[in-house]
Every structure is written in C-alpha cells, then in structure tokens.
Amino acid sequence: MRTLLKARLANDVHSTVLMADNLKDLSAHLGAYGRSVLWIFDTNTAKLFKQLPHSHLVLESGESSKNFVSLERIIAAALEEGLSRDGRIIAFGGGMVCDVAGFAASVYMRGCKLTLVPTSLLAMVDASLGGKTAIDYQGMKNMVGTFYPADEILISVDVLRTLTEREFLSGLGEVIKHALLSPDERMYRHLVVHKRAILNRESEALSTLIELSLEVKKHYIEQDPTESKQIRQMLNLGHTFGHALESTLHFGHFSHGAAVAWGTCRALEAGALLGVTDKRWAEGAIELFGSFGYEIDYKIGRGDWIAYREHLLKDKKRIEGKLHFVLLEGQGKGVLKVLDLALVQQLVISRPL
Fold first, then answer.
1. Model pTM?
2. How confident is the model at residue 353 (pLDDT cuts 50, 70, 90)?
3. Are residues 86 and 221 in the same domain?
C-alpha cells in the first residue's frame, strides 16, 4: 500500500489516498480497522466477498438507491450495531455507495470516521476525493448533501477488471474531462499515447491515469474546498449540459460519465462559437472523446427540449439566480459564462428533417 497523495480540505481536514498493490494488500489494510466499523456494499460489490463482514449493509445497486431511504437504512444500521462517534463507516462500492455512505457518516452523531473504497473508475477519480456527499431528490441529481471528506481513500486497480464496458467508459468520461482541466498536458498525452492499453485495462497505464486524474482534482479542491471561490466549479465542466441530459432521459440511455463527455463536447462547441475557445483546440478535444467511443454527436429530440430546459433551470449550480456553464479558454483555463438558452437549444437538439 503506497500513498498517492494527501489533500488538505475545509477546516484543515486531510484526505489520504492510498494505492493497493493488489486485492490481498487491500484486504490486509481493511482488516486492521477492527470491529468498530459498519461496512456498506451494494448488490454488485457484495458478490466480491466469499463472506461479508459481520457488521454490514447491502444497498441495491444503481442510481435509484441514492435516496433518503438508503440514508435512513445506513443510520439505522449504525445505531443497531452500536457504532459510536469514533466508529467508522467503510463504503465499498461505486459512486452511489460512496456518496450515500459519506452523507450518512457526515450526519451520524454529527460526524463519524469515513473510509471510501471506490470500486469503479468513476468513483476513484470523481466521487471519492473532495468531500462532496449527496443523494438525489425529486428526480434531480445530488440535490441534498454535505461536504465531508473521507480521512482515507483506498484504491485497487485490480477491481476495475470486474466492471462492464459501460461502467468503465463512464469513469473514462470524467478522466478525459480532467485531462482538459489539467494545468499541463501530461494527462492528455497519456490518453493519446496509451489509448489501447487504457481500453485493455492494463494495470500500469490505469495506475498512472488515476494518479494524474487525482492530481488534477486536488489542484482545484485544495484552492476551493467548499466551492465558494468559483475555482472548484471548473470541475463541473460538462455537468450542466450532462446532468440535464441524464434527467431528461430518466438516467437510462447515458451513464453519468458518458453524459459528462457529451456535455463537455457541447461546452467546447459553445466556447468555439462564442470565441472563448480556440476552434482547433476544441475540435481536437472533441475528437479525443470520440476516439474512446462516446456518442459525441447525440442530439435530443425536439419534443424533449421543454423537459431538458426545465432540468437546466433547476440546476443547483446557479449563481445569483443565473445559470452558469463552464467553458474552456484552453488547456486548464476554465471560465464561467452565462449562455443564452437559444444557443443551448441550438447545441443540444436535433435539426428538423
């Protein structure tokens, strides 16, 4: 087990990210926590264990479990197990498990210890680091939540081999977004040069990619831990377009990361049209997403525009009542802009036949 990085967040709280050499190394570290813990799995990650720990709760996998019912189940289980304030919740799963378990840890007895073991690429590079916890509410993503950084985040590349292609590509969508937000081009070049190894899930290529991606996230969250300085908001690149797409399609057609990839392409197109983003650079970035197999040219039906617009207008990232989109001036240079809805409509809906 080696330390990848340490991030200093709000209230001088530190999150340490550790990379396991293999699953045996990960198991040995987790076994050292003792008995004052509550493990949270979903129905997929529970199958990875021949025998589950004594104190555990299994949630149904999928976005539909990211709700108040799951939150209440975790708190009830913690009380039943007699977990004290210095006890620990261990979330072993993807983004849903990490988000809900993190939220529960933040409110249980006003905060207990939290360890995240992200098992999807999306959770490793996005949900685990930074302290955002949340559940969905009334069909809107991440509407209710807190900032509560995990004190430890444990990563094992080996578990990525268990993911479906859809789940793996969902994580890569966020990774490629991070490559565009990086202050330098190391991550972008790694994606281009090692594309085949990454898609084949070769350990060395993935370990480097995850480390680079987490460094990018650390760069933003340490400067703005609670998203109050319009710095951390840059990590929302593609999310305003993408979240509205997910909600419009009822979280079905697109995975979260694929929706972010699609949304980032729309943001790049908007930037190019407004003269904010260099056109050739934007085209190259869109081509990079396309080379990994994302539906970058997808358009919603004209009849879906009203629903899409309504989801946009409910987006929680409004500033002074105005909806802001993250655009890019170039490599690692994000900027917040208000976009006219007519331009958004032009970018997202299919043209009449």
1. 0.90
2. very low
3. no
